[in-house]
Amino acid sequence: MNSLTLEVNGRRLRTEIEPRTHLGDFLRDTARLTGTHLGCEHGVCGACTVLMDGRPVRSCITFAVACEGRHITTVEGYDGDEVMHRLRAAFTRHHALQCGFCTPGMLATARDIVLRLPDADEARVRLELAGNLCRCTGYMGIVAAIRDVLDQFRRQPDPAVTALRERMQAGLPEAPTPPVAAPDGVRPMPAFPGQQPAPALAMRASANPAAAAAPTPSTAATMEPAPAANPGTRKGTQIEASFDLPFAADAVWAFMGDLPAVAGCLPGAAIESQDGDKVKGRIAVKFGPMSAAFAGAARLERDDAQRSAVLRGAGQDSLSQSRAQGDIAYRLESLAPEQTRVHVEMLYALQGPLAQFSRSGLVKDFVRRMVADFGQQVARRMAGDDQGTPQAPTAISPMRVLLDLLADRLRRIFRRRG
Question: Please, what are the domains in the chain?
C-alpha cells in the first residue's frame, strides 16, 4: 500500500492505496465521486476525463499514486467555475447531451478548448473533440455549445477567465477559485440541467426559445451534396432493398429520369426547384411520435448504358437541426419483356439529435417499407392510376415494425428447423 495525499474538488484527501489503482477507480470507489464515468478503460473514449491542475487527463489510465499533491476536479466540483457554468447552460440550450454518459468527460474537454483556444473555429473544435466519443448526439449540439461559449467570451471578456487563459499560456497550474453562486436555471452537477430522454430532446428542440434564437449552421436550402467518393471510403448506414414493376426496363428507365414524377411517388417528398440534374426540395417522415422534415438539395447521376443511377443529396431538419447526407443508388434488371426489378442501395449518415436512430434495426425496416411504398406508387403512376397526387409522409408504428420483425425472426427459426 502507498500513502496518497491529494486535493479533490477543493477537499484534501489522505489515504492508503494500492499502487496499481487508477485515478478513475479511486474517485469512484474511494472518494465516492461517481460522476466520473468509466467506459473503454483504455484511454480511448474520453468518458473518464477529469481535470488535474486544470488540465484534462484520462483517469482510467492515470495511476492514482502519480497524482500525489495534485489538484483534481471532477464533474461534481465545477460549481465555482465561470467557464463551466456557461458551458453547462450552453449544453442545455443546444441539446448537447442525450444519455449523458460521455457528458462529464465532454465538459472537461470543452472547458479546456474554451480556455486554451479562444479563437477556435468549428473545424478546430471538432478536432479537439476527437478524443471524446459520443454515441448519441452526432456532436452538432456539443460543437454549437462550445462555440456559443467562445463567442460569449469574445463579445464580453471575463477578467477571471482571461486570467485563467494567461496562466495556462504560461504553463502554470490554475489558482484555486472560490465558489460562486450558480446562474439562474443551472443546477449543480451531477444532476445535469435539462436532462431528458433522448427522443424528448429531439422533439423539444423547436419548443425552446433560447435554442431557436441560438446560432445554427447554414440552412438546408443552401446545402449541397458532397462530390462522388470512392465507395470503399464512404461511411454511413447502408440499406439494400428492391421492388418489381410490371413494365419494360426502357419504360422504367425513362420514368426514373423524370425527377418531379419520381418525387411525387415518394411519400412526403416535394421538389421546389430544378436546374438540369440538380433539384432542391424537402422530404417529411414520421416514425411513431417522432417526425422530421429535411430540406436540402440533390444531384442525379445517370448511366444510360448500365441503366443505373445515383442520387446524391444533403439536407437539414428544421425541427432538430439534424443534418443528413447520403446516396440513393438504383439499378434496373430486366426479368422479362414486361417485368423489371429495381435494386436500391442507400448509404446515409446523420448528424445531430436524430443520429441516435440512424443504425437502429427498426429504422432500417422503416426505410425498406418506404422503398416498398415507393415501388407501389411508381407502378400506379406508370399505369396511369395516379395523376400526380402528392403522397403524405409515411407514418409507421414502431410497435408494428417490432412485431413484424419478431414474426420474421420466428419464421426463419421454423424454416431452419424444418
Answer: 2-213 (3.10.20.30), 229-417 (3.30.530.20)
